[in-house]
């Protein structure tokens, strides 16, 4: 099982000021040197909770592009890019370019978005989010997998829009974060990988969502085993379900998630520092 770390994209070094990119780069390099598998960012334009309403995290795509040059072996992903924030055909070109820059290490996590204040602040429509997500994902996957797309939808239209042709072009892994029936159906249709977050140990809510995803795959005529499962877990947070920063306890949880058929865990640590990353890496080594 692979294990990765979510970077603190919006953690404040001073009121209203995110942690410097230099610190994010150093954390990503620590994840890599510790033998972990993936570095993750999240894609928000404003903070994700009422108490964070004025927080302005770093723009996720730019950070991920910088990390593609700052690292060489870890895979690079997002939980998740909001498809409403960028025109999908342009975003496909961006993803294809970063896939080449990174040496085919991109995990293109996609979601419909949920935090209305950031939609309102930046003038992005919040209505029909799943319908808009479906059209954007259709365009993205066609362009990245087939090389170009023509599409006439209610919200998006493209005409013979291409990505750059090059020898040996490999599309990035498409990951979708979803739990509602309609989004699970779209996951079964488009995704290589699925994520649900945030947990501590595996629980019945995750198992029920996983079962529903398998049913969505079957309904779509797809073998559920062909869709990879991943989960996000909390480490060191001050809430009941979070796991402690303890290698023994984390190794126990990692093994439990692996027994559920999960192929990768994304750890959201608090604090996200070199010491905590090393504890996560030690737990990863203990499960082999």
Please sum up the structure shown.
The protein is an alpha/beta fold. It has helices spanning 21-33, 60-70, 88-102, 116-121, 129-146, 181-190, 204-219, 247-259, 274-286; strands at 2-6, 12-14, 17-18, 38-41, 75-78, 81-82, 106-111, 148-152, 157-162, 173-177, 193-199, 228-235, 264-269. The protein has nine helices and 13 strands.
Structure report:
By secondary structure, the protein is α/β, with parallel strands linked by helices. The chain has a single domain, classed as Luciferase-like domain (TIM Barrel), CATH 3.20.20.30. 40% of the residues lie in helices and 22% in strands. It has helices spanning 21-33, 60-70, 88-102, 116-121, 129-146, 181-190, 204-219, 247-259, 274-286, and strands at 2-6, 12-14, 17-18, 38-41, 75-78, 81-82, 106-111, 148-152, 157-162, 173-177, 193-199, 228-235, 264-269. The strands form three sheets. The chain has an eight-stranded parallel β-barrel, surrounded by eight helices. A hairpin with a 4-residue loop joins strand 8 and strand 9. The longest helix has 18 residues, at 129-146. The relative contact order is 0.14.
Key terms:
288 residues; alpha/beta; 9 helices; 40% helix; eight-stranded parallel β-barrel; single chain; TIM Barrel
Gyration radius from CA atoms, angstroms: 18 Å
Order of helices and strands: EEEHEHEEHEHHEEEHEHEHEH
Main sheet strand line-up: 1-4-5-7-10-11-12-13
Give the terminus-to-terminus CA distance. Answer: 8 Å
Q: What percent of the residues sit in helical stretches (DSSP H or I)?
A: 25-40%
Average pLDDT confidence is: 95
Task: Indicate the overall shape.
Answer: globular
């Amino acid at each position: 099982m692979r294990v990765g770390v979510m970077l603190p994209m919006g953690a404040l070094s001073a009121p209203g000021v995110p942690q410097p990119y230099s610190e994010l780069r150093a954390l990503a390099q620590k994840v890599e040197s510790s033998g972990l598998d993936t570095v993750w960012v999240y894609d928000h334009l404003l903070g994700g909770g009422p108490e964070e309403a004025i927080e302005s995290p770093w723009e996720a795509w730019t950070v991920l592009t910088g990390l593609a040059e700052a690292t060489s072996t870890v895979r690079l992903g997002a939980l998740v890019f909001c498809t409403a924030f960028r025109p999908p055909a342009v975003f496909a070109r961006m993803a294809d370019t970063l896939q080449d820059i990174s040496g085919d290490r991109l995990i293109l996590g996609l979601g419909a978005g949920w935090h209305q204040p950031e939609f309102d602040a930046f003038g992005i429509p919040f209505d029909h989010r799943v319908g808009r997500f479906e059209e954007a994902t259709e365009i993205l996957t066609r362009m990245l997998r087939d090389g170009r797309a023509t599409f006439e939808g209610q919200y998006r239209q493209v005409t013979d829009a291409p990505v750059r042709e090059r020898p040996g072009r490999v599309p990035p892994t498409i990951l979708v974060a979803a739990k509602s029936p309609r989004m699970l159906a779209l996951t079964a249709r488009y995704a290589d990988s699925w994520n649900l977050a945030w947990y501590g140990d595996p629980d019945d809510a995750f198992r029920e969502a996983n079962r529903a995803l398998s049913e969505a795959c079957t309904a779509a005529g797809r073998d559920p085993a062909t869709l990879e499962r991943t989960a996000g877990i909390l480490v060191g947070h001050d809430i009941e379900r979070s796991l402690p920063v303890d290698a023994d306890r984390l190794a126990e949880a990692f093994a439990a998630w692996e027994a559920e058929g999960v192929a990768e865990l994304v750890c959201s640590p608090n604090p996200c520092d070199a010491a905590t990353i090393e504890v996560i890496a030690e737990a990863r080594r203990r499960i082999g």
